[in-house]
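note to self: dont lose this again. the chain is below, predicted strucutre after it. 348 aa total, dont forget to put it in the shared folder this time
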Amino acid sequence: MGATQKAGIQVFFHRLQKLFAPGWMVNRRVRITLSGWLYNGLILFFGFSAINTGNNLLYLILAIMISLMIVSFWLSEMAITDMELSRELPETIFTSEEFMIAYKLRSKRRFWPNAGIEIMEKVDGRYLTAFFAMVRAKKQETVYARAAIARRGAYEFKEAIIRTYFPFGFFVKDKRMNIEGQVVVLPSPVLGALDPAQSGGQMGVVKPGQKGSGTELFGFRDYQPGDHPHWIDWKASARSSQMLVRETEQESEQSVVIILKISLERPQPDSIDRERAIRKAYGLAKYNIDQGWRVRIQVAGKGIDFGAGMEHLKKIANFLALFDDFKQPLPGEQLAPPNFRAREIVVE
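---
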């Protein structure tokens, strides 16, 4: 069976489904509004009046009112069908900080627009809403909604509710749509400088002939994101036609080891002191990386080894967000004691 025949069969079954199980019969929740109850009350009033009096004008009014109710139901169904809804999330989200969610709605209709559509989604226990006044046929519109997530770690988005009161507000019609997505909520950093009272002095020994922050040339390596521009050797880079960075023998290694002394098991609900320790560790890592130091963070022997730059800071933030999530594979790596001088900070 060719691809054309398969596509034709799929279209045929899709049309059968729309004929025998239209959208208004499945995945719908319809509730009559207050104005709808009042309107139905008027229909009953004119109905009894027409029957009791036999007045043709009352029968005409009754027929028009019933027709408007049927048309309203049909138009509301057209408003929430034949469309595609997608969600865009920001790359970085911190706990308890507001962020913007972009909802994109594309109309698949050829002529009629999708109008009066409200998007509702439950995020961290609270409903947020976004409203599309009108999306023209074959066009796409974008609206934004504010949200905040208080819990650190992986957060899954599952479904959204599409709601409409269109066109007359006699009833509200809901449809659920699965829009799966996941985001990692990073701990909000507690910013601040190094606290000498919590530092453990120096750790390890200095081994000669190792690369580090010194004056004697050790060698060259390829440039990596996060390297300081002053480390680039432009003459060597011009000779080799690639960006090279100078490496010098170690004299005074500016490195920090942040040891987070907390349990790997996450309590339910979250402990305020424990979460503050995680936020403080991230704040210390950010502060020292901003100062140009190399930072390593570890919890129970696992963590992120020494590195510098914003990419390394992202790895640390992702590790601190997920290290105690049993649903996620444990991030980081098994760490050995450093073989050079480093400052030690214990956070507990």
